[in-house]
């Protein structure tokens, strides 16, 4: 089996260096080429020999003389002077395929098979101008013999004749002449072609060039420049210049060391007298650029003398040879005439090593300090992403590390919002599209610790959002805290296993990394390579981001061999002495690492009890207990906080409960220190976080709740006098509040504090922020705590108290503290906040951090139901409106809260049966009014609760904005699937229409297009709309909608759940024609899209393809909701539609007696068009005068428009 390495084939995107590298690899492997060059003469020889051998083997033995004679006769092959093939190489195949029965058509004799195929024989012509003849005058003497001459260049060499000496001198002069001919004949070897045939091809090229004049050469050059691509021409020039520079340096070195003998000097003297024909021709054609063939680079830059002398004195490595290409980088940048782009014109972005975007040009920065001299745009400072990507694949380690670090800095600033709306696409998206993730994965397999460190830093920035992680840590400890799952959106791909790595990376970056065994690689790096501290931290934070991907990823991480054991062994040691001994830690092995403890805590939150059991088997509690008393100064604060959080998380999963008994004395002593030393007025954020984490652990011990109650009393009293209320201080009080009993909670009085003063300024829903979705690729979702321009979401700011207020209200509700609830809801700050929420469109509804504010609003709505008798109607109406908005704003992973909001929004009291009765009594309904009221009061909330998903995702809404019409959409889908509607479906439609009429607040925020399209679906639900009850309510609802909002309709806007309005209108036409029986409400709805303000496409669709239904549009003019003027003006300009109008009128399809509205429309537009003076209108008038119906002709020709 062939085990030779498989070589990569060249790609169109490969550069010159890549092609050279592939060629060197190919030659090193000594593989046979896929295509061979065959010497046709040699093949013909071997073929003839083989043929003769076959003949001799079959006949009698021949002598050597006859065989040699035959070979010589066969070798006499004359070839053409053209560039065609000399001999056909496939002679044997031709002989095998020959039919020996073929005869000559003239002589009728057998045709002998030909051994060779000759080219065209052309006479060779000699050009006398290309040869030099020494014309001498022979003066004959009287003797009749030529005069004797004496040679001037005789040598005292008896071994050579006079003739030979003369010939050698002439040949030397010709050689020197050829050397001075210039660019056409300066070398004996080709610098472009390589291989065994290179020299022969080069000689043939030189011979052909020598036979051509300068004009012919320039013509051929222009042809080549026109036919070849510019990239190919530049490639050949670059390759030639590179080789010439090398050859030139070697030649100069050789000439300096060798001595020239007297022969060479004399030869040079001779060459001075030889005229240079190429130079004369070049003077004549000095306006034409010379061909770049076999040219010598004459403008080589001189190296700095001081640098070379210093290198020679100090013996610097590799400075003894002159490298021309590197010296070019020391040249000054040639001035370019490029102007700066216009303000709105995009240009290629360039960055410095810190990842900062540089201006297009900065004249204040000198070129030696501005990162100039790169391949493209050398006059601009900085490096582009493409150049950095290329540099990251360099063979030089320092270049790779520099490129990866620079890319990491760019990504970090892009993630922080520096380049929002500035770079298109964003750097994260652009690098993701270029498979930067796989490039990092390849670099991670390097053996160098420096490259691995730089790669881990770049990979950490690409995957891990530090701002999101900090904000999630701040939320830890509040009530109902959850960790988000950062899953990618669903795609149409059924099985990702069929995808290649680069395809999977565009859909799910974390899944692509897991496929490349990154977990095993990180485990190996941490255990064997032992990188520096920054690399260890980056590796642990990368693991944290992988944990947040999915529960399946958590299982893979937990089951990775030796990964958890390596982390706990090296980065969670039993002792903390190494942390306290040195200020600067250069090696974190054997030192507690905060990132490792945090990784285990987050892994535990996602993995649950199985992970808790595995950590317990690794004896993690011994380390947690030892870290509790760590005293390493400020550096140990974060370590102790994370340690207590991990301890608390283990206790939540009923693990390490026994550890509390042994640590009781330690916890009591720490609580006593908090009571005596911790005052929230002067406490720092870290000290408050430590106190909150400590109280969370201590709350698991029942005897310690008394101590915590005393702390709550102390801090609640200090809260009243606190002017600057911050996040960490309210978090401490909230954690304490959740740990105490009912009696201690009553001591908390927050109504007089300043916690409500910043409600509006710290609200996400009231902010003008929006998620920067274009900043990050869809394959790598993040929480996006930093909005556009790096602005932090208001709800996680230092002054925000939303999570604290949500916790307080939920505690009050759980313990039925009615007075406290009433006090909070009657606060003027709360009322202003709620009022703004009702009148404003909410922002950042889908943000993970907005959950705290939504939880606070849900608590307000639930609390209002407990004290509804003690609140005024105005406040209760505002809270009811908020409940209706919460139905479509709450995330899908909170189904219980959504159902509560539905019950409150559709409560029996709010439906107000008297209003319902007054609305319905004015309609002609066959059903009993009491039955409808009973249906609305009891079943309406259950009707919508069935559409609430139980296992939804946090980044999706539980209900759509038009949730009121969900039963209609469900019934319409049922009818499209050929199912029959029943009485329950009719009752559901009646409930929806009743809510539409009774509670217009439910749909006031919806667009008119959306409401119209949803009501139209009722007409497409079989024949339910023909029921008197449904018809009356539907006509009333449609009339109410169109009466004041017909001008707001725009059927070109896309709607959720609707592919195109054209399809919906077509379905309306077909259903009207088949089931309507001329229903007035359906007719009114069908005429809405054909108003003149809408697209002419709908009018053409009705008056051409569905013209038959016009006969059944019997709606009287008096019942038309939209003014008739909307259908008559502006005048119709479409000629084909005018012809349709006239055709329908002449054929009698529509009459004023049975379809007055279509008749009026057609008559108006036809009559107004016939009044025009163009040729088509004149011809139409002429033809109308000839029709049989003279009354119609008179109406059209003498039409007078109505007045409005």
Automatic annotation (TrEMBL):
Stretches assigned to coiled coil: none
Region forming the signal peptide: none
PANTHER family in the record: RNA POLYMERASE II-ASSOCIATED PROTEIN 1
InterPro entries for the chain: RPAP1/Rba50, RPAP1_C, RPAP1_N, TPR_RPAP1/MINIYO-like
Domain RPAP1 C-terminal: 348-414
Disordered: annotated span: 236-265
UniProt protein name: RNA polymerase II-associated protein 1
Bias kind Basic and acidic residues: ranges: 249-262
Keyword Nucleus carried by entry: yes
Species of provenance: Tetragonisca angustula
Biological processes annotated in GO: transcription by RNA polymerase II
Subcellular location: Nucleus
Main location: nucleus
Domain RPAP1 N-terminal: 200-244
Family membership noted in the UniProt record: Belongs to the RPAP1 family.
Pfam hit, one: RPAP1_C
UniProt keywords, alphabetically: Nucleus, Transcription
RPAP1/MINIYO-like TPR repeats domain mapped to chain residues: 965-1175
């Amino acid at each position: 089996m062939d085990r030779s390495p498989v070589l990569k084939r060249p790609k169109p995107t490969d550069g010159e260096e890549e092609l050279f590298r592939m060629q060197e690899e190919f030659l090193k492997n000594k593989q046979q080429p896929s295509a061979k060059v065959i010497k046709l003469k040699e093949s013909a020889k071997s073929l003839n020999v083989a043929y003769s051998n076959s003949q001799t083997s079959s006949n009698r033995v021949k002598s050597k003389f006859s065989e040699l004679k035959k070979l010589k006769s066969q070798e006499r092959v004359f070839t053409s002077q053209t560039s065609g093939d000399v001999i056909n190489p496939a002679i044997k195949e031709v002989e095998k395929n020959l039919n020996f029965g073929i005869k000559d058509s003239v002589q009728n004799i057998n045709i002998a098979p030909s051994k060779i195929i000759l080219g065209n024989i052309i006479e060779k012509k000699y050009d006398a101008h290309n040869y030099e003849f020494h014309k001498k005058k022979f003066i004959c003497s009287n003797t009749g013999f030529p005069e004797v001459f004496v040679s001037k260049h005789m040598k005292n060499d008896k071994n050579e004749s006079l003739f030979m000496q003369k010939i050698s001198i002439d040949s030397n002069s010709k050689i020197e002449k050829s050397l001075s001919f210039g660019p056409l004949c300066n070398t004996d070897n080709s610098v472009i072609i390589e291989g065994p045939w290179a020299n022969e091809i080069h000689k043939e090229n030189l011979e052909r060039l020598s036979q051509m004049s300068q004009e012919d050469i320039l013509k051929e050059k222009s042809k080549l420049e026109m036919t070849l691509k510019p990239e190919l021409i530049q490639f050949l020039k670059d390759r030639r210049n590179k080789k010439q520079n090398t050859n030139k340096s070697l030649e100069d070195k050789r000439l300096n060391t060798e001595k020239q003998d007297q022969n060479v000097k004399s030869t040079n003297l001779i060459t001075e007298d030889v005229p240079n024909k190429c130079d004369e021709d070049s003077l004549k054609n000095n306006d034409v650029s010379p061909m770049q063939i076999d040219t010598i680079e004459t403008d080589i830059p001189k190296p700095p003398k001081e640098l070379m002398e210093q290198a020679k004195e100090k013996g610097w490595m590799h400075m003894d040879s002159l490298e021309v290409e590197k010296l070019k980088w020391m040249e000054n940048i040639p001035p370019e005439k490029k102007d700066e782009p216009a303000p709105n014109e995009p240009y290629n972005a360039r960055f410095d090593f810190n990842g900062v975007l540089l201006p297009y040009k900065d004249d204040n920065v000198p070129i030696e300090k501005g990162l100039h001299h790169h391949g493209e745009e050398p006059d601009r400072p900085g490096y582009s992403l493409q150049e950095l990507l290329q540099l990251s694949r360099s063979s030089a380690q320092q270049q790779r590390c520099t490129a990866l670090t620079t890319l990491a800095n760019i990504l970090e600033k892009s993630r922080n919002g520096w380049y929002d709306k500035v770079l298109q696409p964003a750097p994260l998206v652009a690098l993701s599209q270029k498979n930067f993730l796989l490039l990092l994965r390849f670099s991670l397999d390097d053996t160098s610790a420096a490259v691995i460190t730089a790669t881990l830093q770049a990979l950490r920035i690409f995957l891990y959002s530090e701002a999101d992680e900090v904000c999630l840590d701040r939320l830890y400890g509040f009530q109902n805290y959850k960790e988000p799952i950062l899953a990618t959106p669903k795609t149409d791909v059924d099985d990702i296993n069929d995808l290649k790595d680069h395809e999977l990376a565009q859909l799910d970056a974390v899944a692509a990394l897991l496929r490349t065994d990154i977990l095993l690689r990180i485990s190996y790096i941490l255990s064997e390579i032992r990188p520096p501290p920054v690399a260890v931290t980056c590796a642990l934070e990368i693991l944290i981001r992988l944990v947040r991907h999915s529960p399946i990823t958590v299982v893979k991480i937990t089951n990775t061999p030796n990964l958890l054991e390596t982390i706990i062994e090296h980065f969670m040691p039993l002792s903390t002495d190494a942390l306290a001994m040195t200020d600067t830690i250069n090696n974190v092995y054997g030192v507690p690492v905060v990132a490792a403890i945090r990784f285990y805590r987050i892994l535990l939150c996602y993995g649950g009890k199985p992970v808790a059991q595995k950590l317990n088997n690794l004896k993690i509690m011994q380390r947690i207990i030892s870290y509790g008393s760590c005293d390493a100064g400020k550096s140990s604060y974060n370590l102790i906080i994370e340690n207590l959080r991990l301890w608390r998380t283990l206790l939540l999963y009923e693990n390490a409960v026994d550890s509390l008994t042994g640590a009781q004395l330690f916890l009591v002593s720490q609580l006593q220190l908090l009571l005596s030393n911790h005052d929230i007025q002067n406490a720092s954020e870290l000290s408050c976080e430590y106190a909150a984490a400590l109280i969370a652990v201590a709350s698991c011990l029942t005897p310690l709740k008394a101590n915590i109650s005393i702390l709550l009393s102390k801090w609640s009293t200090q809260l009243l006098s606190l002017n600057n209320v911050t996040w960490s201080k309210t978090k401490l009080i909230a954690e304490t509040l959740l740990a105490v009993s009912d009696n201690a909670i009553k001591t908390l009085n927050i109504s007089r504090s300043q916690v409500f003063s910043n409600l509006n300024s710290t609200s996400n829903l009231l902010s003008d922020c929006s998620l920067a979705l274009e900043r990050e690729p869809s394959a790598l979702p993040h929480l996006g705590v930093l909005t556009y321009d790096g602005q932090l979401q208001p709800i996680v700011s230092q002054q925000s108290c939303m999570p604290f207020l949500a916790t307080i209200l939920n505690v009050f509700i759980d313990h039925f503290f009615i007075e406290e609830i009433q006090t909070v809801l009657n606060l003027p700050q709360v009322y202003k906040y709620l009022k703004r929420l009702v009148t404003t469109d909410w922002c950042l509804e889908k943000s993970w951090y907005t959950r705290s504010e939504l939880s606070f609003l849900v608590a307000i709505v639930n609390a209002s139901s407990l004290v509804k008798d003690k609140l005024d109607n105005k406040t209760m109406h505002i809270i009811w409106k908020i409940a209706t908005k919460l139905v479509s704003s709450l995330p899908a992973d909170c189904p219980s809260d959504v159902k509560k909001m539905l019950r409150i929004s559709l409560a029996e009291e709010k439906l107000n049966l008297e209003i319902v009765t007054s609305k319905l009594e004015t309609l002609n309904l066959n059903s009993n009014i009491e039955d409808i009221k009973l249906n609305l009061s009891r079943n309406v909330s259950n009707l919508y609760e069935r559409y609430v998903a139980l296992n939804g995702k946090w980044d999706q809404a539980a209900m759509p904005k038009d949730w009121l019409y969900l039963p209609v959409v469900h019934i319409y889908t049922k009818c499209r699937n050929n199912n029959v509607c029943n009485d329950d479906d009719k009752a559901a439609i009646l409930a929806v229409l009743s809510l539409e009429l009774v509670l217009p607040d439910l749909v006031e925020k919806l667009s008119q297009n959306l409401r119209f399209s949803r009501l139209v679906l009722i007409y497409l639900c079989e024949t339910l709309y023909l029921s008197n009850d449904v018809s009356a309510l539907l006509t009333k609802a449609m009339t109410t909608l169109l009466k004041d909002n017909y001008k707001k309709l725009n059927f070109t806007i896309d709607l959720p759940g609707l592919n195109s309005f054209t399809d919906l209108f077509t379905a309306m036409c077909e259903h009207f024609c088949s089931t309507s029986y001329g229903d007035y409400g359906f007719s009114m709805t069908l005429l809405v899209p054909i108003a003149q303000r809408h697209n002419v496409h709908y009018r053409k669709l009705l008056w051409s393809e569905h013209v038959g239904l016009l006969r059944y549009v019997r709606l009287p003019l008096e019942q038309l909701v939209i003014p008739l003027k909307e259908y008559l003006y502006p005048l119709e300009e479409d000629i084909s539609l005018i012809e349709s109008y006239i055709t329908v009128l002449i054929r009698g399809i529509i009459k004023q007696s049975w379809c007055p509205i279509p008749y009026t429309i057609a008559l108006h537009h036809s009559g107004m068009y016939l009044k025009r003076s163009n040729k088509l209108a004149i011809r139409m008038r002429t033809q109308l005068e000839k029709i049989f119906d003279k009354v119609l002709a008179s109406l059209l020709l003498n039409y007078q428009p109505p007045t409005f």
